[in-house]
Design goal:
- This protein has 230 residues and is an alpha+beta fold.
- It has nine helices and four strands; from the N terminus they run E-H-H-E-H-E-H-H-H-E-H-H-H.
- Helix 1 crosses helix 2.
- The protein is elongated and about 70 Å long.
- The structure holds flavin-adenine dinucleotide.
- The site of flavin-adenine dinucleotide has 10 residues, from helix 7.
């Protein structure tokens, strides 16, 4: 199965909500008129002011839930390192792993001999898994033999502050290719529905400054350019 990322739920009018929350901080508005006059242009302007000032807590009011499948455990291990989030991942303790389903890295896919090695080793590992289960070894122990590349599915919820942080780290050209693909798809989905909220999202070079120790030397100039990369 190829990578599939769906946006399954999100806060209603997320950008307006974040702008309204920020407006509450800086004006004498009552809660009844917080949304008044908050058109797309004002929201975009307001959210940029917040970002420039480093006042990022209003971004925490908007949350987004994704369902991701066809992704390897290599990638989800990197994903779950992001702690300001909620996760539900298919369990290898409770779910029996069927025939080999591994994400094949492009560097292997493009090499017939490597594909043969990869495929036969995955099949061998899965056969060992099944044989151990037949011997009475619990699934939670038999799974130790399965490859890192095994496909999994995961539901993740992040607020827009954490998403922006996640995109900054994981859309850098120096990040690993699979987590970059996941992050790109995640950004694509939220950028389409809340462009003001994810304006200038992506690695720090999008906003003009690289923070990498070993810069790639090829900065992105915009979020659109990040999304256009394949
Ligand atoms: C290119 C790249 C290479 C990497 N290589 C490695 C590697 O070799 N080995 C490795 O172990 N990891 C590696 N990582 C993972 C990295 O160290 C982080 O664990 C991961 O990116 C999660 O990001 P984060 O810690 O900024 O924050 P998140 O968990 O996303 O949290 C967001 C922010 O909240 C704050 N925060 C969260 N929890 C705490 C806390 N407990 N205390 C204080 N502040 C907190 C921090 O400001 C943090 O930046 C790599 C990441 C990248 C992008």
């Amino acid at each position: 199965m190829s990578l599939e990322v769906r946006l399954v739920a999100h806060t209603t009018e997320p950008a307006r909500l974040v702008a309204a929350a920020a407006k509450l901080c800086y004006s004498a508005s009552s809660v009844g008129d917080l949304y008044d006059g908050l058109d797309s242009e004002k929201i975009r302007h307001f959210l940029k002011l917040l970002r420039d000032a480093g006042h990022l807590s209003p971004f925490e009011h908007a949350s987004f839930t994704y369902a991701i499948e066809g992704v390897s455990r290599v990638a989800t291990h990197q994903l779950v390192r992001h702690r300001v989030a909620s996760y539900s991942q298919q369990s290898q303790r409770y779910v029996t792993m069927g025939p080999p389903r591994c994400v094949v890295p492009p560097s292997i896919e493009g090499n017939a001999e490597a594909v043969e090695i990869f495929g036969s080793q995955a099949a061998e590992a899965h056969s060992a898994y099944e044989r151990m289960i037949a011997l009475g070894v619990p699934k939670e122990d038999a799974r130790f033999i399965l490859p890192h590349g095994w496909e999994t599915s995961i539901i993740v919820t992040m607020n827009s502050r954490e998403l922006r942080h996640f995109f900054a780290l994981r859309l850098c050209r120096r990040a690993q290719w699979e987590i970059r693909s996941v992050a790109r798809r995640m950004l694509e989905l939220v950028f389409a529905m809340a462009p003001e909220l994810f304006d200038a999202s992506g690695p720090p070079c999008v906003s003009g400054g690289c923070t990498e120790l070993n810069s790639c030397g090829s900065p992105f100039s915009s979020t659109e350019e990040v999304l256009g990369e394949r």
